[in-house]
Amino acid sequence: MAGSTSPQGRLRLSAPVATALAQGAPVVALETAILTHGLPRPDNLETALAMEQAVRRAGAVPATIGLVDGSARIGLEPAELERLAFDERARKCATRDLAPALAARVPAGTTVSATLYLAVRAGIRILATGGIGGVHRGGETSLDISADLHELRRSPASVVCSGIKAILDLPRTMEVLESLSATVVGFRTDRLPAFYVTRSEIPVPRIDDLAALAELHRTQEALGWPGSVVIAQPPPAELALDAATLEALLDRCRRRAARAGISGAAETPCLLACLAELSDGRTVRLNHALAVANARLAGELAVAVHGHRSCIPSVMLP
Ligand code: PSU
Ligand code: MN
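Above: inputs. Below: predicted complex with pseudouridine-5'-monophosphate.
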């Protein structure tokens, strides 16, 4: 079956995603800034493919979102995904960059903000990523605050992540999330995970089972809530870093970034790349593992939400 295209051709759904959405089957959106700017090649492609596979294994359909050939793809084809993964020109696209990147027909990986915006417009309400953006350290003066936070206020979805990236200012990020009325919960944890670190000091409401997550998702939908729920799952403990080790590495990376004059949208990719180098690739393995685990949980959540909606008695299902 062919995919579907919006009248202006700007939003293109792949055939599997279009079919799944038409049938009301579970679908999970996946972002691609992690592919173009978060991980080194070729691990980036491996991670993106493994995330898709994890969603499929959970029984849902992955919709990896990115910009290719002047349109926003909701469900990149494998060849497009590969092209994006190795394209040196690929931009990092947040919400405000969507129209300029599409108009100029430049390839781009979409951040959580742009992915969330596109996913919700396509009718997808569950998204998985590694870690969301937030208030950068020093953000109280630089005002470098990720557009992810604002999009979490305005696009309704459940966003499965490993909390907020540890390179950021976590307490201030939580304050902004509260001001923006974005709901945050911990999956099997009562402390906010910090991406490379399993837990921070910051308390979060704890949810222990999938059925309760699905109920929360449905309740936000029933309220007509305009924003998202952030579901924070700790990264796999066997690969996670302890907070002190991370801070020591980060200190060196920050000094390096400052010397190179790097700030703004380039800061997150630069710090992630530096941490990968100084940790001998451990953060890359960790990022891969946590992203895949989040994709799996998002897939399971999509199936749980969908299963509940079905009006077919379960005894009649094969
Ligand atoms: N998760 C990862 N790696 C990443 C990102 C998330 O494991 O690179 C990306 C997401 O796309 C997120 C972005 O939206 O980093 C935040 O960038 P900034 O701080 O510039 O808003
Ligand atoms: Mn920024």
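The pocket of manganese (II) ion (ligand 2) is lined by residues 144, 146, 264-265 (CB under 6 Å).
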